[in-house]
Design goal:
about 270 residues; alpha/beta; TIM Barrel; eight-stranded parallel β-barrel; 11 helices; about 40% helix; globular; binds 3-methyl-2-oxobutanoic acid
């Protein structure tokens, strides 16, 4: 648990980079989970459009809508007492025009009380990021593997075009983003980017030389049992625990052992 319980702010991210104080980020999609993660001391809660896969059960994030993001981000922002809450702009709610991006990001901030938005893309997003930041909307960038581009990329693969990804991260930083996610790139490239850019890098599948780390909470808690990518560490095996608990309940009901005296009213 951090000693400092005051709410995390955007300027804290810059300060933490200069202090080399690692930043912890986890995804969250609902009130009780966000309360638990926040209480356990995570610095930042990301309402990721990964909810399309881990909550909705789709194979990609492409179907997630802005209204769905608002529904989830509102619950998470209401639960968080200390952590900074960032919400993803979903596919095609910001790529069409700067005007569209301003409207979508504005809705996210105004209707959910989250503090910042995240969007995918590097050089192609410079005008958009500049416009959002000028309007007072903090932006977290996202380069390397961009899940919203999965159709173009042909799958979820490690991205190795070093110069392109470095230029993208630099462009996102120069446009005014306060942090940038580096997804699925080699450790050496993530280290080069972390040294080169002035804003914190938040890695997922990008090795230890980032300023912070992010994981999808369902992955790190072992809730998604058929998806175990190399970059995930399982801090719990909740999938196994849930199955054992439910099997015990079913057996108790079948045998007439539940409810017992203590769970019944006189
Ligand atoms: O959608 C998401 O959860 C993300 C993280 C994996 C970085 O973008």
């Amino acid at each position: 648990m951090p000693n400092d319980t005051r709410p995390v702010t955007i300027p804290d991210f810059a300060a933490w980079k200069s202090q080399r104080r690692p930043i912890s980020v986890l995804t969250a999609y609902d009130f009780p989970t966000a309360r638990l993660l926040d209480g356990a001391g995570v610095d930042c809660l990301l309402v990721g459009d990964s909810l399309g896969t881990v909550i909705q059960g789709w194979e990609t994030t492409l179907r997630v809508t802005l209204d769905q993001m608002i529904y989830h981000a509102e619950m998470v922002a209401r639960a968080a007492r200390r952590a900074l809450v960032v919400a993803d702009l979903p596919f095609l709610t910001y790529q069409v025009s700067t005007r569209q991006a301003l409207r979508s990001a504005g809705r996210l901030l105004k209707e959910t009380n989250c503090q910042a938005v995240k969007l995918e893309g590097g050089r192609s997003m410079v005008r958009t990021i500049t416009a959002l930041v000028q309007a007072g909307i903090p932006v977290m960038g996202h380069v390397g593997l961009q899940p919203q581009a999965v159709r173009r990329l042909g799958g979820y693969k490690v991205q190795r075009s070093s110069e392109g990804i470095l230029t993208d991260a630099q462009a996102v930083a120069d446009a005014g983003a306060f942090a940038v996610v580096l997804e699925c790139i080699p450790t050496s490239l993530a280290a080069r980017i972390t040294d080169a850019v002035s804003i914190p890098t938040i890695g997922i599948g990008a090795g230890p030389r980032c300023d912070g780390q992010v994981l999808v909470v369902h992955d790190m808690l072992g809730l998604i049992e058929n998806f175990r990518p190399k970059f995930v560490r399982h801090y719990a095996e909740l999938g196994q625990q849930v199955r054992a608990a439910v099997a015990a309940y079913v057996a108790d009901v079948a045998a007439g052992r539940f409810p017992g005296e203590v769970e019944s009213f006189r």
